Amino acid sequence: MHRGKGMKFVGDSRVPAERKPNIPKDYSEYPGKTEAFWPNFLLKEWLVGAVFLVGFLCLTVAHQPPLERVADPTDTAYIPLPDWYFLFLYQLLKYSFAAGPYTIVGALVMPGLAFGALMLAPFIDRGPERRPSKRPLATGFMLLAVASIFYLTWESVDQTDWEAKEQMGAISDVEIDKAAEGYLIAEQNTCLSCHGGELGGASGPKLTQTGLTAEEIAEIAVNGQGAMPAGVFKGTEEELQIMSEFIANLE
Questions:
Q1: Triad 205, 207, 209: Cα angle to 5°
Q2: Neighbouring residues of 96: CB distance < 8 A, sequence distance ≥ 6
Q3: What does DSSP assign to residue 118?
Q4: Which Pfam families match (predicted)?
Q5: Which CATH number is 181-248 given?
Q6: Residue 195 is assigned to a ligand binding site
Q7: For residue range 18-76, what is the model confidence (pLDDT) as tens digits?
Q8: pTM confidence score
Q9: Whether CATH 2.30.30 fits 84-159
Q10: Which of 3, 65, 98, 210 is 20 to 30 A from 47 via CA?
C-alpha cells in the first residue's frame, strides 16, 4: 500500500500555521488616548483599588466606630440620623416639596430620577471626546449633582443639634429596670420625651447619677426647674414618691 493512498487532506484558513505570542498592540502613535486593557489598564485599576483599600483599613484601625446604646423602640424622643453619606437624602425630606404628603417624592421619585440618569449617562452622551469642556451636558449634570450633595449635607450638619444627639445616644453605665414601677410612672407622665428612654438625657438633662435626694427630685417634678415648667407631673403623691425614689437610686 502506497503512502497517502486513500487519505484526504483538508485545509482550514481559520487555524494559523504559526502561533504568535499574545503581544499587545503598539499604541505609541496615540499617546494618552488608549492602551491595552490587559495588562496595562487593569493593572492600574488594581493598584488604585489597593491604595484605597489600605487607606480604609488604616482608618478602621485608627478610629473606633461611634457606637451608641442598644436601640430602644419605646424611646420616642430619640432622633435617628443616617450615616454621613446619606445625610443629603435626610435633609431633602425636610423641605415642604418632599415632606408630609409628598414624602414619596423626596424618598423615591427624586433619588430614583437622579440614579436613573446616572445609569443612562453612557447611553445619553456617546461622544468620543474625553475632555470635560467638550462634554457640556455630562459635565453640567455631574457638577450639579455634586454641588447638590455637598449643599444638602452641609445644611443637615449645620441644623442638627449634635450635643443633644450624642446625649440621647450615649451608652449609660447605669442599668435601667424598665419594668420597675418608678420607670412606668415616669413614662406615664411623659418624662421620657425629654429625658430619654434610658433616662440618659435628650432635650432635658439625664436623670441618672443626679446626686439629688428623692425629696429634691419630687420638688423639681412638681414645681419645675430651668426650662422645665411646673405642673408636668400629673400623678398622685404616692406615685410621685415612688418615681422620685426610683430616680434617686439610679447610681
A1: 115
A2: 102
A3: H
A4: Cytochrom_B_C (PF00032), Cytochrome_CBB3 (PF13442)
A5: 1.10.760.10
A6: yes
A7: 666 666 666 566 666 666 778 878 898 999 999 999 999 998 899 887 777 777 776 66
A8: 0.55
A9: no
A10: 65
